[in-house]
């Protein structure tokens, strides 16, 4: 029997018992919809998690420190051979030449005293200063940014944290858990104004003489003078949340372009270490290496370690989270498949009833020369057709269920938590293909018993059936 004839015959048989076959197909669709809805929820949460953390700029970054700085922090780590390499300008240049590296910038942190240009000297505030690279503009911290980003990486401009901006305006401080966002009128009072920064500059100068030595005879070239400086900074924006939160020393309140901050040559916490372990040239406490794609982080991290530095990335810590999401997706898929397994019982029932109703038809086909294999294939085609139709219907229903629940969840979050809309469900192409194929396979498996039973019918007994 030709394939076309079997498909045509199977279609005619399905149409004859339309209501029963439609209900069976609908049951398959409900099972597939349950599978698609549950798995797409797991995929959506994983995608949302990766997207949010990816936008933070932390998952595509490698944090680099000199090897000697972290050796004492890991008592169980085996001692490394060879002299430690300083994290200086030459090291920074070498890191920038590694393939797939987009930028290398220092994790700048310093302390300064600030006041508005028109304010009295006693109305000053001390704060921690942080440096921002140009790529920070894409961080999710700037989703609620008020103002504009730096005009260049070397401009004398400043972005304020909202809490520090409130202090400059003399507004009451809000708790950390409260919304720190300023009104547009309050922000306009700061934008374009000059903020006076008073800081300690690390200035090169003659080293102090050693005890018992004539003045100027010391060979220690690591010493430096500390000079008090002032710098006017133009306020260009206010941001509610700190970018790269948790990766700095302390809570920063004032953000400068990182290149401009480095040019000020401020005294930083690590400068005390330089006096104890003198080296030539400028040294960095730590550097951040940003990679083009997060999947390239492990290779870049390995290259940095080969250069003799200590490297760490959040990709190392996120592997466990990725595994947890895979396990979650697996369990959601298993529970979602249970409804499809139940629906397969409906296929068995439908096809068994079809055998009882079509005994005479089966007998005539076998009397005319149809083999047992032909009869089996007819029932397999019927079961597969219900699987394809039910799978396609289920994918659409699963997508629709996800959209409805996603809409309801976003409405609740917006009204009660003032949160932005998010996609918690994600139906990927491979999930659609897998769901339809799984539906067909389950349907074919469910059709094994009815097809075998139909093939075993004795044509003489079948023709006698009324």
Description:
The chain is of the alpha+beta class and 466 residues long. The protein has 2 domains: 3-54 and 321-464, no CATH class; 108-207 and 222-283, no CATH class. It is 50% helix and 16% strand. It is built from 15 helices and 11 strands. The chain has helices spanning 3-16, 18-55, 67-71, 89-96, 162-169, 184-188, 258-263, 271-276, 297-306, 314-357, 359-367, 372-417, 429-446, 448-455, 459-464, and strands at residues 61-66, 101-106, 109-116, 125-132, 146-147, 157-161, 194-203, 225-239, 254-257, 287-291, 309-312. The strands form 2 sheets. The protein has a 6-stranded mixed beta barrel with strand order 3-4-9-6-8-7. A 4-stranded antiparallel beta sheet has the order 2-10-1-11. Strand 3 and strand 4 (125-132) form a beta hairpin. It is elongated. The two termini are 26 Å apart.
Set out the fold topology.
Layout: H1 3-16, H2 18-55, E1 61-66, H3 67-71, H4 89-96, E2 101-106, E3 109-116, E4 125-132, E5 146-147, E6 157-161, H5 162-169, H6 184-188, E7 194-203, E8 225-239, E9 254-257, H7 258-263, H8 271-276, E10 287-291, H9 297-306, E11 309-312, H10 314-357, H11 359-367, H12 372-417, H13 429-446, H14 448-455, H15 459-464
Parallel strand pairs: 4-9, 6-8
Antiparallel strand pairs: 1-10, 1-11, 2-10, 3-4, 3-7, 5-8, 6-9, 7-8
Helix pairs in contact: 1-12, 2-10, 2-12, 2-13, 10-13, 10-14, 12-13, 12-14
Give a nutshell description of this structure.
The protein is of the alpha+beta class and 466 residues long.
Helix content: 40-55%
What is the count of helical runs? 15
Distance from first to last alpha carbon: 26 Å
Number of domains: 2
Low-confidence stretches: 69-81
Assembly classification: single chain
Strand residue percentage: 15-25%
The Cα radius of gyration reads 35 Å
Shape: elongated
Arithmetic mean of pLDDT: 76
Order of helices and strands: HHEHHEEEEEHHEEEHHEHEHHHHHH
| Strand order in space, largest sheet | 3-4-9-6-8-7
Strand pairing plus helix content: what structural class?
Answer: alpha+beta
Q: Count the E strands.
A: 11
Main beta sheet: strand number and arrangement?
A: 6 strands, mixed, barrel
């Amino acid at each position: 029997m030709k394939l076309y004839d079997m498909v045509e015959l199977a279609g005619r048989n399905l149409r004859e018992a339309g209501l029963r076959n439609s209900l069976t197909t609908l049951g398959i669709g409900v099972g597939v919809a349950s599978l698609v809805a549950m798995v797409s929820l797991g995929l959506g949460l994983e995608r949302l998690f990766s997207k949010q953390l990816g936008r933070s700029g932390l998952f595509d970054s490698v944090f680099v420190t000199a090897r000697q700085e972290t050796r004492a922090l890991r008592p169980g780590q085996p001692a490394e051979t060879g002299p430690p390499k300083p994290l200086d300008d030459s090291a920074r240049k070498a890191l920038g030449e590694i393939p797939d590296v987009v930028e290398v910038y220092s994790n700048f942190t310093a302390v300064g005293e600030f006041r508005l240009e028109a304010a009295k000297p006693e109305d000053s505030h001390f704060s921690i200063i942080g440096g921002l690279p140009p790529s920070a503009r894409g961080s999710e911290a700037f989703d609620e940014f008020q103002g504009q980003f730096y005009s260049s990486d070397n401009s004398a401009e400043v972005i304020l944290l909202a809490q520090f901006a409130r202090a400059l305006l003399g507004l009451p401080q809000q708790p950390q858990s409260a919304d720190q966002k300023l009104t547009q009128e309050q922000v306009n009072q700061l934008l374009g104004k000059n903020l006076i920064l008073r800081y300690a500059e690390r200035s090169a100068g003659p080293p102090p003489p050693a005890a018992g030595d004539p003045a100027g005879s010391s060979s220690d070239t690591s010493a430096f003078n500390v000079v008090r400086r002032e710098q006017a900074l133009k306020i260009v924006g206010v941001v509610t949340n700190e970018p790269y939160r948790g990766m700095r020393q302390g809570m920063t309140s004032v953000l400068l372009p990182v290149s401009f901050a480095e040019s000020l040559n401020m005294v930083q916490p690590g400068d005390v270490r330089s006096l104890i372990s003198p080296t030539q040239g400028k040294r960095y406490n730590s550097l951040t290496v940003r990679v083009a794609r997060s999947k390239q982080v492990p290779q870049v991290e390995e290259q940095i370690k080969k250069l003799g530095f200590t490297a760490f990335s959040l990709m190392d810590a996120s592997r466990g989270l990725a595994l947890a999401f895979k396990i979650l997706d697996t369990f959601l898929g298993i529970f979602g498949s249970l409804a499809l397994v139940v629906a397969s019982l409906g296929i068995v029932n439908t096809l068994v009833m079809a055998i009882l109703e079509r005994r005479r038809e089966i007998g005539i086909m076998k009397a005319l020369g149809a083999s047992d294999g032909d009869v089996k294939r007819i029932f397999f085609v019927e079961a597969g057709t219900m699987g394809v139709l039910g799978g396609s219907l289920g994918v659409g229903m699963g997508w629709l269920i996800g959209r409805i629940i996603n809409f309801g969840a976003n409405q609740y979050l917006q009204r009660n938590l003032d949160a932005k809309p998010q996609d918690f469900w994600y139906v990927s192409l491979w999930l659609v293909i897998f769901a339809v194929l799984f539906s067909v396979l389950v349907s074919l498996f469910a059709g094994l018993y009815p097809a075998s039973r139909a093939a075993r019918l004795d044509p003489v007994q079948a023709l006698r059936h009324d």
